[in-house]
Amino acid sequence: MNDKKLKVIDLFAGVGGMRIGFEKAGFEVVYSNDFDRHACQTYRENFGEIDEKNIKDVDVDQIPDFDVLLGGFPCQPFSMIGKRKGMDDERAKSFFHIIRILSAKQPRAFVLENVKHLRLYDKGKVYDRIKQNLEFVGYKVREAVLDSQNFGVPQHRERLYIVGVLDHSIDFKFPEPRTTSEPLSSLLEKGVGEIDYLSEKYYRGLLNHKRRHSKGGNGFGCAVLDIKGISNTIVAGNMGRERNLIKDKPNKKNRWGIRRLTVRECARLQGFPEKFRFPVPMTRAYHQIGNAVTVNVAKAVANVLKKQLIPLKPVTKQNILRPVVPTLSKLTSRELQKAAAA
What we know:
By secondary structure, the protein is an alpha/beta fold. The chain has 10 helices and 8 strands.
């Protein structure tokens, strides 16, 4: 078997969760890009250089040849949290630059990650358009919602993974889920300082807020976890931290011992290694972890893809590609949408 490493590029790289997973599976990252300067600060601290240009300004001719494109393109336009503008959001239009790069470079495969609600947005019309664009540039596309708790970390986190292969003879199958063996308690730090505990006044406010919502018939509000079980989804905003409270040792700040999960505990729930550093303020570190791809899930997907792409074989462009494809790399997002709808 050819032991040559498959090369990948990491777009919308964030702090590198997808990268770590693919590197653990034996892939080599040859190019990374993100336009969030704080995420780039953390990425550089842990991996080295990253291209900080907005993806619309990235020249495909400057991207080295690669086998697999990775992309956790912005999820906020499709998330249940926020305004959910869908494709009307400028961040969502970044997706069409993925199409631009795929059409120009024609890598053997791609792996994209987003919130699971992307498939349901606007009655499925948005995802249908996304899939049509990916198929338009020659790829056989498969998608699945994978839950992080089924891949070795005690976190309930459902995310949509989209995989495309240029060789249509490949029938990609997503990795089979497995039961998490370790409970949340196994990832907790010992001797946590008071900074991570909630003040009693703040905690009472959270409880009152939860009661008001409960009377209205919904389940919004804080949650104290059973540490023998799993966590709720780690998300970027405060709500995610308040939905992942635990009862630890009582102290002067909180007689009940109610505290948030620490940055390191959240990083562990996302599968990040202990040596991974966050050279940013604590609030930004939480935000970055909440936006990250779970390392364990990325590795599981990468392992399956690797078995199907190795040994390396020449892949010819699919004859379903239309004559317009070679010019797509030079089109704007709006022009790409028009071309894909033609």
